[in-house]
């Protein structure tokens, strides 16, 4: 892996600076919170890969079922020359799309974008080895900030898979969808994966697995804050909570301090106190309904051309035209 193969929009100082700002804002709020993107250092990215193999975590398998079934159709409909994947992680499901586009004969460039440099570097290497002749341009960056810098020749297909759209608060979601629409020309494509509303038990189990992998993933954000900002969180003392908010139709992950504790975060110049039972909201993972997805895409300036789900109706994939 040579450096020129990764386009890095985030240096170590950028990262520390951005984390410091988020920690200062989120941990001084009345209801403490941290953005979920900070889960994904090398350890967190690996833990997330482990989550996707858990028996309780169905979204990855459900989405894969749809992509395996529809990749050929997606290639035929879009005829994309460039596949851009936002938050690509290991790019494992992307292979289904790459295979479809390659077999169709239109694919030239693949642009995976991810905040995790380690996950991206691995993915770029693996994809390059598996697809000789494909121009792979990895971009390390934050898809909320670096969308305008995407390379690749049109028509492009931007894929945002895994249900990661659910990690935005509703207002940010609208802005994000708009920003995707704004970097595309009319007639280009957006492929969006959305986890769907279902019974609470299935949902909560997917975010609170018996083996405790999701709990470790959740606590990893405190390890990241310790490492980058020199904080003295005791991650193991915080309890993992996965709460289904039926009103908002989202899963909320929390880290709960069972006892009062004071934490020092020198890199953010702050001390943070927790009362017994007080928690940090570390992630929301919104669940969707077909009508809601179609409406939100329309408001952002897309037209939904296709809607597919897995056989059990657990996960939805929309193909929308800009
Ligand atoms: C990959 C962001 C979609 O919200 O389901 C998995 C992350 N969090 N288990 C999700 C996650 C807890 C995941 N996304």
UniProtKB/TrEMBL annotation:
Gene name in the database record: egtD
GO biological process terms held by the UniProt record: methylation
Residues involved in S-adenosyl-L-methionine binding: 87, 93, 114, 142-143
Residue positions binding L-histidine: 57, 167, 207, 283-285
Claim: Transferase is one of the keywords in the record: yes
Organism, as annotated: Amycolatopsis thermalba
Pathway per the UniProt entry: Amino-acid biosynthesis; ergothioneine biosynthesis
InterPro entries per the UniProt record, alphabetical: EgtD, EgtD_Actinobacteria, EgtD_Methyltrsf_superfamily, MeTrfase_dom, MeTrfase_EgtD-like, SAM-dependent_MTases_sf
Pfam families, sorted: Methyltransf_33
Name listed for the protein in its UniProt record: Histidine N-alpha-methyltransferase
């Amino acid at each position: 892996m040579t450096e020129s193969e990764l386009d890095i929009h985030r240096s170590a100082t950028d990262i520390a600076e951005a984390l410091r700002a988020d920690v200062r804002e989120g941990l001084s709020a009345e209801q403490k919170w941290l953005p979920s993107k900070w889960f994904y250092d090398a350890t967190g990215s690996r833990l997330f890969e482990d989550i996707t193999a858990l028996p309780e975590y169905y979204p990855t398998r459900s989405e894969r079922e749809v992509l395996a079934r529809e990749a050929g159709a997606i290639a035929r409909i879009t005829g994309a020359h460039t596949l851009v994947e936002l938050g690509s992680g290991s790019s494992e499901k992307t292979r289904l799309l790459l295979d479809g586009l390659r077999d169709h004969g239109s694919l030239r460039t693949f642009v995976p974008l991810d905040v995790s440099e380690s996950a991206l570097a691995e993915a770029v290497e693996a994809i390059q080895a598996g697809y000789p002749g494909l121009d792979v341009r990895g971009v390390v960056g934050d898809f909320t900030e670096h969308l305008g810098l995407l390379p690749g020749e049109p028509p492009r297909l931007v894929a945002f898979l895994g249900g990661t759209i659910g990690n935005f608060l509703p207002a940010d979601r609208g802005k994000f969808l708009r920003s995707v629409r704004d970097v595309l020309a009319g007639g280009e494509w957006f492929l969006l994966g959305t986890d769907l509303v279902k019974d609470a038990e299935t949902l909560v189990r997917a975010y609170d697995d018996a083996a405790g992998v999701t709990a470790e993933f959740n606590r990893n954000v405190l390890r990241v804050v310790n490492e980058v900002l020199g904080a003295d969180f005791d991650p193991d003392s915080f309890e993992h909570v996965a709460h289904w908010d039926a009103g908002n139709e989202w899963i909320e992950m929390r880290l709960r301090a069972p006892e009062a504790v004071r934490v020092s975060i020198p890199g953010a110049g702050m001390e943070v106190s927790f009362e017994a039972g007080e928690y940090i909201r570390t992630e929301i993972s919104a669940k969707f309904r077909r009508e809601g997805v179609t409406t939100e895409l329309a408001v952002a300036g897309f037209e939904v051309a296709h809607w597919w789900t897995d056989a059990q109706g657990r996960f939805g994939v929309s193909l929308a035209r800009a």
